[in-house]
Structures are given as structure tokens and as C-alpha cells.
């Protein structure tokens, strides 16, 4: 073992000897450069102001090239579709589009129930927005359409503004389902229009950077909490229960308590149907994962489950014999466009903005992942416009707000999808189902759709493992994750998002107010400087103090910076400046009095504007000694004062500096230079400048 380590030790010793030799050569250097102010630097560097045309002036220029550029910017399909390689990409996009459509059919039906709407409106939301995104989107691989998080956010709004209790019939105290569904469709479509208006407006003003305030831990915690909301909302379909509509803070807790209270009323046929469907879906997914490399495309487990459950329900008569709730009538054909209700705008504006931001955050994060993987660029502002137009036009055709689905996007990429032609093909396939095949799913049990939703929550529920990874990596991010999750669970989705964003921004402010301050020392035989409190071998350069802060200095932490500078380096800036001003004032008064009494010529007095950068250690002992010296000075006779002043006047002719701390008799530290490491300074405000100016006045 010793023989094996010998070469490594020799290499290490040789490296250290080389490093030491370089260090010895570097010690005999001397760096000197003039101290320049801003005016001198601009003159030396020959700075000139930019004479280019202002950006806003180019917005109003009209030319053929600019018109073409704007057209291609807002209609990206005109840029890539004429250059589409049909032979290379069409087959892959065709197979990918069919695979996505097979997934989109059951998910559209299921997520419509999640939004509190009849299932057919999930099919509408899987057609119109997808085709609109094909025309305006810049991502080639994301699958736009219904998504669980968006659907549960819509469901919380529809159930709060159109609850079941508002549509009870006076005759038999039952819910008027037709009137309730019509009211909820109007709320959802109006909400979609508002979401689209927000997204288009933010995209046109290039406000795509707003999503940067949603950090990855925040988004993952929010989607995890939303998946818990989705899971709880589907329990009534799994057990066949009739629950009260709730919204607002603590609504999730009340819903869980009500489910537990009404468990004895469970419809056994409904629960068995949901369990069987869930087991089948899980087995098919495991089979697809095991044979992923052998299968050209994954088995459509959801579609097969829907077809099988519909056939069994129709043949056995699950609704009539076992009381299993089914989807019901699905109208064939498309619905005409309907104008949104302006009366609902004021009640929906807050939820619309939250849904717009969350939907865009999910879409752009997934789009950038695929763009980085395949080597193309996604325009965040154009993505806002594309999603906004999808929701805006979709809302006019009675769709609810949509975003992109992670599971469908992964299928679209893995099955050979290259462009949004795959999305257009999937939307056309959904159109065929809406027009001709939709009524075949009238006997589909709602419990099967609930099973589809719950099984698809696996990916988001697995994000609970973030707690362990963030505990090891960054506990501040873990705190953001936990606060976001708890706030979303307790306060519902809209208030939870607001609390999470505010908390994360406040945490950034707090971290800038509590930075790490350090006095740096040189690690032996290196040019590396580290905190002397953490590195025992680090040594300070004799006569030099290097002070560093890990955060930028601004108005919120400037006072703390000065306090820590005093504590770590012994430089009490405020006390020394006040002492210096007092001594300078005494000298001026003394000179005036002596000149008046003895008619001495006026000597060049130390002006208040003159400053020398000398740093001072102001320990308690130094302050006491300074006070003693001051008291002794008061006992000096007038004749001695005159002699001292005359001597100082003669010295002034040689050295005009009368404002240095040494000449003023203030205590001297054990170092001669103070270096402030300002590498973390990202911006400068007036408070920062004043704090730095006070240091230079010493």
C-alpha cells in the first residue's frame, strides 16, 4: 500500500515546490497606478455618448423588411412550414399526432369533470386551442390542451361561483343539473377569455420575464399541492358520493372531513369500477415501462380502458343495476361561438391572472427543456401570445383555460414528433371524435375517468421526494417548497400562489439583509483568499485588512455593513468622523483666536473637504486614551498653545495635510490599508455611496 502511494506523494511534493517557487517570484512585484475619478477616466478613455437611434423610434418605421419580420415573428408557422421536410418528418409527426390524440381523448373527458363541466367540453378544449397553438407557437414538442393543474384551478372557480346549492329545485330539493352546467360553462369560458387577454397583453409588452419570479422549488411545490387537490376532488367519483361544493381557505380540509363522514354511503359498484380501472391502467403503464425499447409506441392503456369500460357498462347496465354514475349524453358536432359575460369580469380577474401565470410557467419551462434538448430556440414572449390566443379564441367557443401536459409532451417527443404538425393532427383526430364518435362514450362510468386522473398524478406526487433532496442541497429552497405547499393546501390555489410568490421575494430581501461578512486571509502557497474565521491556515497580509460581504450593499443593509466593518476590522466610521470634525473645529477656532490676539498671518488651514483614507481601530481602550488626551489638552497654557500652533503653521508650509487622523492625534490601528471587496455589488444607490464615502473620509 505504501509503494502505491509513493508516486502520488512525490507528484504532490513536486507540485507544492513548483507553487512555492512561483510564489517567491511573485512576492517581488510592485503595482502602482494613478487614482482616477470618473471625469478623468472618461477623458483618458475618450468616452463618447451613444448616437444610435432610440429603440422606440424603430417601432414606428414602416418598410417591407420590417413588415415581413413582424409577420414571421407573430406567425411563426409561416417561417417553418414552407421549409417543412415532408419525407423526413411527416411520418414521425403523423404517428406522434395519433399517439397524442389517443391520450388526449380520455384526458380531455376526465379533466372536464375536474373543471366541474360536462365531459364534452374537455373535447372542445382539446381541439380549438391545440390548432391555434399550431399557428402561433414556437415550441415544436409541447402538447397543448387540458392539464390537471389548470383544470382543478378552473374547477375551484366554477364551483365557487356556481355551487350546487344555488340550483336546488324547490319541488324535490334536487340539483337542476342542466342549469348548473350552463352557468359553469359560461363562467369557465369567460375565465378562458380573461386568461387569454392577460397572456396576450403580457406577451405584446414583452413581459415574458414575469415567470422568472416563479422559482423551480416554488413551481414544483405548487404543482404537488395542486395534485393533492386533484386527488381529493376525485374521491367523490371514486366512492360515488354527493359532496357539498366548497371553495376558499381550508376547503380541502373540509372536503376530506366530509368524505370521511360519508364513507358509509359509498356506492360499492362505483368503487369497484374505479379500483379495477385503476389497476388496469397501472399494469399497462408498468408493461410499457418494461418493454419501452421493444415497443414502437406505448400501448394506449387509457383509450383501451375507456373502450372496455364503456362496452362493459353498456352490456351489463352498470348505471341501472348497480347505480354507477355515467357520463351521459354527449352532443355530436361543434357548438357556435358565444360572447363572454362582462358581468363576470370583476369577479374573475384575480383568478384569471393567477391561472395565466401558472399556465405560462408550466408551458415555458417544459418548452425550454425540449428546445435545449433538440437545439432550437423558444421565444417566451411569443409563447405568451400563442397561449393567450389559444385561450382567448377557445373561450369564445366555450373552452376552459388550457396549458401543456407533461405526459402528452413526452409521448409526442418519444414517438417521433418533430414539429407542431403532430399537434395539428391530434386536434383533427379529436375533431372527428367530436363530430362522429363522441356519442359512443355516453355509457362511460365517471369512476373510470376519475381513475385515469388519479393514475396520471403519479409524476406530480413523486415530487414529494424533493423534500429529501432539498434538505441536502439547499434548505432555503426547502423552506420555499414547504411554505408554498402548505399555503396552497390550506388557502386554495389562487391565494396559495400569491403567498408563495410574496414569501419567496421577501426571502430574497431577508437574505440580502443577512449576508456573510468576512475578513479574508491568504491560504498558504496560493493566491486564494478565504475567511480567516473558517480557514485556520489562512493568514492576513501584514498591515492590510480585506473585508468582504456576500451580498450587495444598499439602503436595507448599509447600516449593518458599517456595524460589521466595525466589529470585524475595528473601524467605527461614525465615531471617528464625529471626533475628526470636533478636532478640526477646535483647530479652526484656536487659529482664529490666536491670529486675532497675536495678529499672526493666516496659515493654510485644513479644509473640511480634504480627506485621507487612513483606517482606525476604535476599541474601548483607544476611545478612553483619546478622552484622556483631550482632557490633558485642556490644561495646556495659552503660551504653549501659541507655540504649538506656530510650529504647526510652519509644518503646514511643508505638508498641508492637517486633517489626517495621525496629525489630529486620533488612535492608530495595527494596519495601514483597508480593502473592501465589492465584487458582489450588483447596483449602487445613494445610501451605499454615502456609506462608502464615510469610510473614505477617515
From TrEMBL:
Residues 534-698 form the STAS domain. Coiled coil: none annotated. GO terms for molecular function: secondary active sulfate transmembrane transporter activity. It holds the Pfam family Sulfate_transp. Residues 625-661 are annotated as: Disordered. Residues 645-655 have a biased composition (Basic and acidic residues). Keywords: Membrane, Transmembrane, Transmembrane helix. The chain crosses the membrane at residues 109-136, 190-214, 267-287, 299-317, 352-372, 384-403, 415-435, 447-472, 478-510. GO terms for cellular component: membrane. It is a multi-pass membrane protein. It is found in: Membrane. This is Solute carrier family 26 member 6 isoform X7. It comes from Delphinapterus leucas. The lineage of its organism: Eukaryota, Metazoa, Chordata, Craniata, Vertebrata. The gene is SLC26A6.
